[in-house]
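Hi L.,

You mentioned the student needs an example of a multi-chain input paired with its predicted structure. This one should do, with 522 residues in total across all chains.
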Amino acid sequence: MRILKDLRAMWRQGTPAFGPFVQLNSPGICEILAHAGFDYCIIDLEHGVIHVDTAENMVRASIAAGIVPIVRVAFNRPELISQALNIGASGVHIPHISTPEEAKQAVFASKFFPLGGRGVCPFVRAARYSADKTIYYNKANTETMVIVAIEGTEGIDNLGEILKVKGIDVIFVGPYDLSQSLGVPGQVTHQKVVDKVREIAAMSKKAGVAVGLFVETPEAAKEWVKQGVLYVSLDVDAAIFLKASQSYINQLRETAPSTTRR
Amino acid sequence: MKDLRAMMKSGKACIGIFAVTASPAMVEAIGYSGLDFVIIDCEHAALSPYGTELEECVRAAYAADITPIVRVTENEKGMILKALNFGAKGVIAPHVNTKEDAEKLVRAARYAPEGRRSSAPPVRAAKYGFTPFPEFAKQQNRENLVIPLIEEKEAAQERLSEIIGVKGLDVIFYGPFDLSVTLGLEGVCDHPTIWKGLDETVRLSKAKGLPVANLCWDIASAVESIKRGALMIALSVDMVIFRQGLQALMARVEKELRNL
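Structure written out for the whole complex:
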C-alpha cells in the first residue's frame, strides 16, 4: 500500500501543507492534484455535489496517486463523520464549530474508545475490508486528523475554550463565512476579517494547534504562511479550472481577435 | 505494484485471481490479500468495457497496489484502448482463434511502430498528461502485457503455432474451461486432453520465449500447472471463492445450527 505524507510531521517541522478543495465529483481530479504535487485535497461534501459512494472513489483515487484525502462533511454530525472516516479519509474537516461542546462532539465522533465513541465497524474500506481488524482501532485513533473550522464570531469568542478540547489537529478559518458574520459578506480581504484571522492564528499557535486557512491565490498563501499558517487550503478545483480556462481564452483572443470574438 | 513481466522472466510464477463482481471495493480487497495481480473481467461480468465503472475498478487496484489486468468483452480495439487508457497493466482478449485475431489484438494494444493504438495524452494511464506522451507511449509498449486467450478447439489444436508466432504478444493464456466445452468435455478441466493442450501450449510458447498463463480452480491444479511450466496462474474467480465460502458456512449451519 502506498505511504502517504504525514502532514502532522510536516507541521511539527514548521512545513506548511498545501491542498485545494475538491468540489467537482471526479476521482480523476484528486489524482491530477496529486500528480501536480499538492500535499492533500479536501473532498468537499459540504459545498461540492458529491455523494458518499463517489467520495469513496475519490478517496481511493487520492490513495492510488499519493495525496492525503481529507473529507469536509456537510455538518457536525456523528453519522456523517463516521461515513467520511469509514471510506478512508485521512482526516475529517468539520464546518461551523462555535462552541467547545460542538468541538468535543466532533472529536468524539472522529475517535474510537478511549478517545471518543466513533461507530465501530471493521469491514469498511478504512479497515481494509477487515484485513486490518486487529490494528485498526489504535491505528485510526493515532492517524485520523480532526480539522475544526471556525467560521463565525461566536466561534472566535469561544476560541480559548475550543482550543482546550483534546484531539483537535487544526483550527481552520473559513474567511467567507467569517466575513459574513463580521457584517462584510464576501470581503475576505477586509481589515476586519484579516484582523480576526490574525487573532485566531495567534491564539491557536500559542495553544500548539496548527492553523488552517482558505486562500485563493499563491500570493495570499505566501503572506499567510509567513504568519504561521500550516494547513493552506489553496483555492477550489472549479476556480483553478476557471482561471486556467480564462487565461487560455484570453490568450486566444489576443492572438486571433477576429475569429474568437464573443 | 508487482512487475509480472520481471517475475515471470526470473522463472517465478505470479498468482492472481479473476474478479467478476464488478466492484472497486472487491478489487481493492483482493489487493490486500497479497496476490500478485487481479484480472478485472468485462467478458462475463456485469461491467461495461467502456465506462467509469471499469476505470474505478482499475483505480482501486492502484490504491491497493495490485497489478490490474483487464479482460475485455471481445477482441475489439475500442475496448482494448479504454482498458489501457484507464491504467490496466495488461489486456486479455478472449477467443483468439487465428493469426489475424492475434494481429488485431497487438495492433489495438500497442502504439506505433509496433501497432496502431489510438493516441491521447490526457488519460489516466498517462497521469492525465503529467507523463509526457513520448515517454508514456514507450513505457506502455515496454510494460503492458498483451495476452490472447487460447480457448477454442481450433485455436488450441490447429492454429496454435501460427497464433503464438505473431509478434507483439507477451503471454499466452490457456483457457481450459471454454476449451473443454468446445471439445465436448462439458467444462471438465482436469482431463488428460486438457492437460496435454497445456503442455503443447507451454512447449510452443517457450520456443518463442513467451510465458503461459492458465486458469486454475484450486491449489492442486495450480501446482500441477506450474510443474508443467505455466508462469501466470489465475487462481479461481472471486465469485466462486465467495460461493465456496458460503457453502462451507452453510454446511456448518445445517450441521450445527439447524438441529438445535
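You could point out the following to them. Strands of chain B lie at 14-19, 37-41, 67-71, 90-93, 145-150, 172-174, 212-216, 232-237. The longest helix of chain B spans residues 238-257.

Best wishes,
N.
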